Amino acid sequence: QQPVQSPQAVILREGEDAVINCSSSKALYSVHWYRQKHGEAPVFLMILLKGGEQKGHEKISASFNEKKQQSSLYLTASQLSYSGTYFCGTVGGNKLVFGAGTILRVKS
Amino acid sequence: SQTIHQWPATLVQPVGSPLSLECTVEGTSNPNLYWYRQAAGRGLQLLFYSVGIGQISSEVPQNLSASRPQDRQFILSSKKLLLSDSGFYLCAWSSGPFEAFFGQGTRLTVV
After folding, report:
1. For residues B88 and B104, what is the distance between their CA atoms, to the nearest angstrom?
2. Do A96 and B105 touch (CB under 8 A)?
3. Which of residues 51-110 of B touch A (CB under 8 A)?
4. Burial level of A1, CB count in 10 A (0-12/13-18/19+)?
5. Does A53 touch chain B (CB under 8 A)?
6. Do B78 and B11 touch, CB atoms closer than 8 A?
7. Does residue A9 sit at the B interface (CB-CB below 8 Å)?
8. Per-residue confidence of chain A (108 residues) as pLDDT tens digits?
């Protein structure tokens, strides 16, 4: 079943922070995060494999709450290059499905 | 290092014509392979996935089919395209439940 992402879209000014949430009605064993620029293929950002795990990549980090079946992606001090659509993905039975995506636009 | 090739990059086909999109992966063995479709401004819809040669799981019943004739080759086909088949088709591979890597995609327009 497809995970649910929120918000659907967010507009930021450079330097502002954002949080994107991903939740599932099914038990989550891992959560993937990807970013897609317009007209391009999605690019892997990070994967969280354990409940309570947190990871960071430059100023982008994520957390995974296994009990609540949700994950959040944190973008701090956003840059213009952060603009794009962010997808969370979940794996069940070798099947990788994605949420509907969150459109992030960073303005100067 | 692993690479994934997907072609063609763009395709314009008339309604009712056949389709064949090919995806190959290099540098890994026994990958999980996926086909996704993305309508304009929309999310990634899983169409098919495969965990091994000849093993295809279909997610969306429609006029598309997939085949995996070799370990690192994944083919998406249709006998007769519909207007609704237009979209951005993405092939991806992963090693089990771990991160997926996408090909550059094929932008299909059915006219």
Report:
1. 10
2. no
3. 51, 57, 59, 90, 92, 94, 96-105
4. exposed
5. no
6. no
7. no
8. 889 999 999 999 999 999 999 999 887 778 999 999 999 999 999 999 877 676 677 789 999 988 888 999 999 999 999 999 999 999 888 899 999 999 999 999
